[in-house]
Amino acid sequence: MPSYSLVTFGCQMNQHDSERMEEVLQRAGYAPTTDVEQADLVLLNTCSVREKAEQKLRSEVGRLGVLKRSRPELLIGVAGCVAQQEGERLIKRMPQIDLLIGPDNIPELPGLLRELAGGAPPQVRAAFDLDSPRFLTLDAGLPRARQVSSFVTIMKGCDERCSFCIVPTTRGPERYRPSEEILLECEALVAQGTREITLLGQTVDSYLDPTRKLPANPAAEAALAMLPSGETAKRRGAGIHADESEFPALLRAICERVPGLARLRYTSLHPRHLTPSLIQSHQSLPQLVRHVHMPVQSGSDRVLRRMIRRYSVAEYLERTDALKRAVPGLSLSTDIIVGFPGETDEDFELTLDLMRRVGFVGVFGFKYSERPGTPALKLTDDVPESEKSRRLSALFEVSEGLRRAHLERLIGKEETVLVEGLGKTGGYTGRTERNEIVHFGSKEDVLGELALVRITGAFKHSLEAELVDEARRAPLPAQLASAGAALASGRPGRVNLPVV
Ligand code: SAH
Ligand code: F3S
Questions:
Q1: pLDDT average, residue stretch 343-364
Q2: Ligand 1 atom having least distance to the Cα of 293
Q3: Spatial distance between the Cα atoms of 74 and 418, rounded to a whole number of angstroms
């Protein structure tokens, strides 16, 4: 049986595409291996959102090229956003590559591999499925290890066109998945042991059901009235019933149809689609977690305008304040870009002010990097690299301080943790509703349980706890405590490389 190794760069969408890609490969008779040196096929699922991510791809292909010299039968495949963005050009620059496949072409993977096995030249497939969008669907027939937490895609592409972002080019225009497909996949995952689902999309809160099967939201008309008139007309013109988005209706349908689901998450929101009915969903659906990731990008209106984000700082704050008022204890995380063209010291200080004002518990900070074909290329990338680095460090200092204070405030509190796995050196690891990672010991197997714990200490990025139930309580192994360890992944055939 031929073997494959899959290396994933970048975001959760890519991680999820990789999971489905593995299913396609296994159906085609490939077996996973963790040993890249021995694999017959190495597939790199790439990210191109920042230049650094692309550099990683180049060095990885270079390394594999050396391996290929001693093992010419090794197949090197590149999937994901770089494949989509570069197409044939990439093979010209890196002739070691045998296969390029865009995010919408994964189902064609087995056929392309057969061509290559038959001696065909390098294969390239990177076409968007605009007319009849396909979504990579869970292959429920394959044996799999129990996965406590799973991803479900609800949309792909993005219509926002923020001036710095390459995603609309690499992932194409917005296409939404039929609600029934989403519901069936949620049901199938829960039947296989999943307790938590994260709904994925670039702007999940703009979701509209293309099959119009979701029941209308009773609060829709009121919510619709709050939208800018152009947006209202667009949605009415699309013939879809009068909601500002059907995301709240989808959330409700999932919670009703899949009672075994303990927790429902989603990522990411675009602030301009966050509406009263979504806030109301957080109040009425107990499965919806008390954590929201909502990228803000900058705390300066001047910069937000140049980024074409289509909201102001005041509007962002209005929405986060409303969420916090409606859902006590809700925590927020965000994405921020530093050094966007024209960003002054004062603009950057406004970003730090906003971070403190909202009290983000997690901030993903990035230095602006120019991306091919994006509108921001017209602006001069005028913040020097050294200044971008300084701003990024200042941003991390503020965000570390906010996180530390937040984690320390939790010491002594009781929290319900969804137990996701074993720590690398023993003990269990899970997450609170707000996404904090918690390590604790247990005498019994608690995997997949919602366990009540008391927080006993805070590490830099996670928490230490003990089970409230004394009969099951066990001490946390000392090494784990000192390492503040991350979740053990333990999945063969897959390596995840975060890209900052
Ligand atoms: N809507 C998506 C965003 C995808 S890109 C989501 O929220 O899931 C992820 C983050 O990368 C963005 O929020 C932004 O902060 C950052 N980013 C995108 N393009 C960038 C660029 N050209 N330079 C630096 N950071 C960028
Ligand atoms: Fe990118 Fe803006 Fe869409 S950041 S993914 S264009 S919402």
A1: 98
A2: 7
A3: 41
Q: Are the C-beta atoms of residues 320 and 275 closer than 8 Å to each other?
A: no
Of 30-39, 45-54, 240-249, 384-393, the one with minimum mean pLDDT is: 240-249
How many Å lie between the centroid of ligand 2 and the Cα of residue 48? Answer: 13
Overall residue count recorded for the chain in this entry: 500
Residue type at 139 in one-letter notation = D
Would the pTM count as exceeding 0.70?
A: yes
Strand, helix or coil for residue 407 = helix
Q: How far apart are CA 426 and CA 14, in angstroms?
A: 29
Q: Between 3.80.30.20, 3.40.50.720, 2.60.40.10, 1.10.8.1310, what CATH number should domain 149-408 receive?
A: 3.80.30.20
- Our CA angle for 32, 36, 40, nearest 5°, is 65
- Angle formed at CA 291 by CA 285 and CA 294, multiple of 5 degrees: 115
Site to probe by mutation for ligand 1, drawn from 160, 303, 335, 351 as the one with most ligand atoms within 8 Å of Cβ, is: 335
- Is residue 398 scored above 70 in pLDDT? yes
Specify the pLDDT at position 234.
58
Q: How many Cβ atoms from other residues are within 10 Å of residue 330's Cβ? A: 19
Phi and psi dihedrals of 310, rounded to 5? 65, 35
Candidate CATH numbers 3.10.20.600, 1.10.10.10, 3.30.450.40, 3.40.50.12160; the one for domain 3-125: 3.40.50.12160
At residue 245 the predicted structure's pLDDT band, cuts being 50, 70 and 90, is: confident
Q: Cβ of 462: how many Cβ atoms within 10 Å?
A: 20
- For atom 10 of ligand 1, the residue with the nearest CA is 335
* Structure token digits, residue 162: 């923020």
Calculated CA dihedral for residues 68, 74, 79, 83, nearest 10 degrees: 50
